[in-house]
Amino acid sequence: MGARRSLEERFFEKVIKSENPDNCWSWSASKVYGYGYIGTGTGKRGRAKSFRAHRVSWQIHFGPIPEGMLVCHKCDNRECCNPKHLFLGTNKDNMQDCKTKGRFSSRKGENNYAAKLTNAQVDALKSAYAALPVGKSGYKKRKGTVKKLATEFGISRKHVGAIVQGKRRA
């Protein structure tokens, strides 16, 4: 059986370096959500252990990563492992970098990728709810009505309640 290759050797086997040393180094092996991953041996309970490739690159080139620090990309290319493109920062630093570069978006209402309703549908739902009669106790007579609204708009009763209470937009 041959000698086991070091993590550094295995790392560089999976990196595609550009001729220009200032360009990104692409990761050619396993990726999850665009980030490269490399196996580092066996972890707890005998399970395989792996790390993000750009973090391994940092450790190879600069040494250990201080606890609580992230290895961030200047180039915003998740698969990049070029140490010239990496910097250490806190989560707050990383979010600030994201906002500065215009990559962060707090999409509200129908602009949110997970929105189930358009703004017009939300307004129609609120109008339909507001038009419900009020009972003697001062509360809306809504027995079965919220369920009907939920069915009509294709959302849950809980979602209807959150919208009419102003806790959720779409």
Spans where pLDDT lies below 50 across 5 or more residues: none
CATH architecture classification of the largest domain: Alpha-Beta Complex
Shape: elongated
Number of strands: 7
Q: Could you tell me how far the N terminus lies from the C terminus, measured between alpha carbons in angstroms? A: 60 Å
Q: Main beta sheet, described?
A: 3 strands, antiparallel
**What CATH first level of the largest domain would be assigned?**
Alpha Beta
- Percentage of residues in strands: 15-25%
Mean pLDDT: 86
CATH topology of the largest domain: Homing Intron 3 (I-Ppo) Encoded Endonuclease, Chain A
Query: Which structural category do the helix and sheet elements fall into?
Result: alpha+beta
Helical proportion? Answer: 25-40%
How many helical elements?
6
Strands side by side in the biggest sheet: 3-4-5
Domains (count): 2
Radius of gyration: 26 Å
Could you spell the SSE succession in H and E letters?
HEEEEEHEEHHHH
